[in-house]
Design goal:
The protein has one domain: 60s Ribosomal Protein L30, Chain: A, CATH 3.30.1330. 8% of the residues lie in helices and 65% in strands. It contains 1 helix and 8 strands. The radius of gyration is 16 Å and the shape is globular. The model has no long low-confidence stretch (mean pLDDT 95).
């Protein structure tokens, strides 16, 4: 295990509206406010999109199980944001429900908001961390830098 320390910076309340593309809109906000590191929580609904629901087999590098969803799902989730030279690196995990069905996984691509998503973004100050492509897995993983 590795760790670093920091403190809370600004706290933002965000409201995403119907048809907003969650990750694109969040990325634009992060750029505008120059957020370098943050975590977020949210509730609301997603209309349609893509979700990675684990690996096909537990091997490294993993091959993702990707599913599409549509027709509006209640959602709650949590995410991290780290900005590097390529821009905001956003990683969101969410649990979604519709009738008696539940999906849990990593929100991807052009997932669209249904009605509203309310989010709170907590800026992290002083953390020595970022996202980098891990050569072993090929994934964009958290990297904690030496103190």
């Amino acid at each position: 295990m590795q760790y670093t320390t920091g403190s809370l910076g600004r706290v933002f309340l965000l409201k995403f509206s119907d048809d907003d593309i969650l990750i694109d809109n969040l990325s634009g906000f992060v750029r505008k406010e120059r957020v370098k590191s943050a975590c977020m929580v949210f509730i609301g609904a997603l209309k349609k999109g893509d979700l990675v629901i684990g690996p096909k087999k537990p091997v490294i590098p993993p091959e993702a199980n990707q599913v599409k969803f549509k027709d509006g799902w209640e959602v709650m989730g949590i995410g991290t944001i780290f900005t590097n030279s390529k821009g905001p690196q956003i990683h969101i995990h969410a649990s979604m429900g519709k009738k008696q069905k539940v999906l849990t996984g990593c929100v991807r691509g052009k997932s669209k908001v249904f009605l509203v998503i309310e989010a709170i973004v907590f800026e992290l100050k002083g953390v020595k961390a970022g996202k980098e492509i891990d050569p072993k897995t090929g994934l964009n993983l958290l990297k904690i830098y030496s103190r």
